[in-house]
Amino acid sequence: MIAARYGASVTERPSPHPTDRRKTIDGTAGRRRTRLARIGPRGDATTELRRERRSNDEWVAALGGTGEGSALAARDLETFLRRIVGRAAGDRLGAAEEDLDEIVQESLAAVVASLASFRGDSAFTTWAAGIAIRVAFTEIRRRSVRAGRMRSIEAVEAESGPLASASEESPGEAVARGQITHSLERAIATVLTERQRLAVLAELRGVPTVEIAERLRLKPNALYKLLHDARKKLRRALLAEGFTAESMHESARGRVAR
Amino acid sequence: MNWTPDDLAKLLGLLDVTETEEIDCAEFLHRIAAYVESLGPSGAPPEGTSAVVQHLRVCPECCEEFLALREALRAEHPQVGGNRPTE
Question: Among residues 129-168 of chain A, which lie with CB inside 8 Å of chain B?
Fold first, then answer.
């Protein structure tokens, strides 16, 4: 499922660009190679030399191939991803080394499975780091729900809370703010589907999107579309009632546009 | 399901930054590496990255991952741009 969150886009959005070792961060091939060497894992001199010589295309070819070169590239990338995940999420994964191992292996597998979608518009290692962090944080969010540190979608469904007026507003602001809030509540009830209401509320209350998607039996990109469509419908409904983009902006920031 | 004032306030905030066309989380992941690399020292978003910036405003999970990526890369490569989250 973790790979699916990433992989969903791989099949739907094939890269229009071939990986290009000369497409650089700052426009020069030499600097790209230097940057790759700096960003890549620090190891012994042999490792450094090997890594420095690896362009984006070489990473892709090595990881997509077989043999010793492939194994070396996979090991280099694993070393790098271990550091990235450790820094980004180590304290949240806990002290167990096997947890980090599991995440790093899943990350490596997700990177290799997604090689065809690499567009070459960044250093390969930066792209791989982004995937690894998504893998790690998705797992952390799942664990947080299981451990009760994050809300589950079932909890959101069961929760109820009475509407109460916002505090510390002047009566005039409260009235004006109340108008847009009232219209928003009406729009939620009338223009959203039941699935959209549940998904929007769950997201607002911090339920991980991977949990919402599973519950609604949606792929992650389909969930995003559902949420985006819901926001667009609500925005249109408010505009149709005479609220302006400015009044929404002001209300969203706790100020009331007159 | 009851919607609290806090829910409605958060939702209004999201509606305020909602665009007709948005990138989703998978497309964001495709673009975030290049975005992080192109951030200047001030952290100002480079030209042509408005869709990435907009996604950061509407998706707290991708925002969390972006901050983590930036900090992890900065440890590898100090000139990775942008202000630290606490700055």
Answer: 129-131, 133-134, 137, 141, 156-157, 159-166
- Give chain B positions within 8 Å (CB) of A228: 18, 22, 24
- This prediction has a pTM of 0.79
Number of domains into which chain B is organized: 1
pLDDT score, position A169: 58
Question: Across chain A, what does the average pLDDT equal?
Answer: 78
**pLDDT of the residue at A38:** 37
Is the CB of B63 inside 8 Å of chain A's CB atoms? no
Residue A258, pLDDT > 60, answer no
- C-alpha to C-alpha distances, A54 to A57, A123, A125, B77, nearest whole angstrom: 8, 11, 11, 18
Residue A166 and residue B30: Cβ atoms within 8 Å? no
Cβ within 8 Å of B, A 201-230:
201, 204-206, 208-209, 220-221, 224-225, 228
| HEC secondary structure over chain B | CCCCHHHHHHHHHHHHCCCCCCCCHHHHHHHHHHHHHHCCCCCCCCCCCHHHHHHHHHCHHHHHHHHHHHHHHHHHCCCCCCCCCCC
The per-residue pLDDT for range A206-237, each reduced to its tens digit, is 999 999 999 999 999 999 999 999 999 999 99
Report chain B residues whose CB lies below 8 A from the CB of A120: none
Going along chain A from its start, the domains and CATH numbers come out as 2-146 (no CATH), 158-252 (1.10.10.10)
Residue B1 lies in a domain: no
